[in-house]
Amino acid sequence: MVVHFGGQPAQMTAVGKKIDPSNSEFRIPNPELECSANDPTVHGLPSSSDPQPSTLNPQPVRVPGIMDVCRAHGVRVVEDAAHAFPARWGGRMIGSIGDITCFSFYANKTITTAEGGMLTTDDERLFKRVKVMRLHGIDRDIWNRFTAEKPSWEYDVVAPGFKYNLPDVNAAIGLAQLERAEAMRRVRQHCVEYYLDHLAGIDCLDLPVNRVPWTDHACHLFPLVVKPEAPVNRNRLIELLFERGIGTSVHYKPLHRMTYYRERYQLNPELFPNAERIWQGAVTLPLYPSLTEEDQAYVVEAVRELLDGGSQ
């Protein structure tokens, strides 16, 4: 689970939640994260920040427990669900639990609109505010302007907004993708289970651990961690797989290694030993609905040859 406290995206300020960076840092020691999600009395939360839990790779975060903590301290949960569609927690769709949930429908996500995303909330005031802010702060959207009795040319700019509305063509792609979302999720689930079954037993490889029912998992990525004792390191493994026609990626380079954050906040790897350990060995194998079992068998054979047999 990754939880970010104290960010100040301009968008959140614009929709009405002002965050003061100088008073929004809040840390929970790693061993106590799960305890804190179950017991709101373990740690206090600053009233000036909204926690942002992220569903990564994409096993759903225990949002209900986080919600309990936050409600006890009067703060809202902004859920980063860029990887999560159509994941569930306890049978409930991600996007129906947190106060605000943000999805991504970029081309490499579980469903796509080519570019764009979605925000869900059950807060009527926030919903109305977001509708205004997504289109230049205009008080009437296009549908309203051409269906209401008021003249279509009559509108007002009531706030300094953005150009964040999703074009109709992209929305149409998303609606078509939405009809296939669960079917594609099941295919990806089958691919994940194949990898887990056929890569099991490689001592120098850490496989993903699933802590939710498969029906609740979005199965978006299949990340591995190559251990230090492996016959080839992560970078060399990526090169050797590429030579065999297998594309891989790394999800993700930690923020403390990014120039802006490293220099702005004086970050160094020693502050983040767990992120460093995972980053040094992280590699993501191919995973998509049209991936065939024959393709997967080829990937598995190559990984086993390089990590189990030590071929270089």
Helix proportion:
25-40%
Strand content: 5-15%
CATH class of the domain at 181-312: Alpha Beta
How many DSSP helices? Answer: 10
Oligomer: single chain
Outline the biggest β-sheet.
3 strands, mixed
CATH architecture call of the domain at 181-312: Alpha-Beta Complex
Number of strands: 10
Structural class computed from helices and strand pairing: alpha+beta
CATH superfamily of the domain at 181-312: Aspartate Aminotransferase, domain 1
For the CA atoms, what is the radius of gyration?
22 Å
Q: Low-confidence spans: pLDDT under 50, at least 5 residues?
A: 1-14, 18-48
- Give the strand line-up of the largest sheet: 3-6-7
